[in-house]
Amino acid sequence: MIPVTKPYLPNRDKLKAYIDGIYDRQWLSNNGQLVQELTQRLEAYLGVENLLLVSNGTLALQIAYRALGVSDTDRNQKPEAITTPFTFVATASSLKWEGVQPVFADIDPNTWCLAPDNIEAAITPNTRAIVPVHVFGNACDVEAIDEIAQKHNLKVIYDAAHAFGVTYKGESLLKHGDAATLSFHATKLFHTGEGGAIIFKRKEDLERAKKMINFGITGPESIEELGINAKMNEIQAAMGLCVLDEMEENLQAREQVWQRYQQALPANLQLQARHEALGYNYAYFPVVFESEEQTVRVAATLKENGVLARRYFYPSLESVECLDAQAAQPVSKDIASRILCLPIYADLSADSQNIIMEIMKEVING
Ligand SMILES: *Cc1c(COP(=O)(O)O)cnc(C)c1O
Known about the structure:
The protein is built from 12 helices and 14 strands. It is of the alpha/beta class. It has a 7-stranded mixed sheet, sandwiched between helices. Helix 9 packs parallel to helix 12. Pyridoxal-5'-phosphate (PLP) binds next to helix 3 and helix 4.
């Protein structure tokens, strides 16, 4: 069976050495040595400041909303945030969970990121934030979004779960927005088993979030505000440090897999139009087929041959009932109905890729 993705497992002996250190120190959580080390190394690797490690990428979003005053903490404000329907459900469900109504705006048909004009059209007096997604690691139109946010006094929180290591105009893409969040789930490019991070623009927001992720506790006998538990632990950090050590090899192998697809793909497939100033991370290989019927047929034939290509992102989130969407999102709905993500991971063999592409060609042409 060829899965759509495989967790990257770093050198086992190295992980054991980190675990030995954890046993020696007998310190397992609460901002331990390895969490501090990973924080520093990630800030240096990504070229960012004000990075806060948390226990997963969904809590990263929720803490970012809270720290930036987007959440409905008064329970009667009915705030809204404008976001994309073409993403993993957590982008929108995390808003709803925080009492914020996700208001969907449609995506650009080529980049598959939120279209700035549609954002502006969706603004109401209740809008507090824009939550765009750098989907599949592509850069949103960050300049236009910044302008809209300034004009209407809105917070911007980028769900950058796919954008680990991505650069835009030579700098980290994660520097854009009041905050950008990462997921370090096992299936992501860089991972800690489960985990995540928030990169804040301002230090004071980072400091507020630091208190929030530890119950609002600020000292042995002081609880300053309402908090929750969203701390990363030492075992997670140990895994992260090991994966980070092997990032270059991992990226090179993925790029090779990515290029092999790019060079031998059947004709007439639509690929994501990436910004030309983007330094990409080769995390995903999404392709869009001619019709939903063809998409379903390709996915089924691949599955019969032991290959799992996922319909991702499908369905478009305005159709998910518990999110209470108000309006149709025709572009997102259309792309979602015709997209498959092809298997991509560091040790995917050229032979496996050739089989995948042969099957696709047979279905498309036959
Ligand atoms: C993975 C992912 C998340 C959720 O992250 P978890 O670490 O699994 O909680 C959120 N948004 C997007 C776009 C994702 O791909």
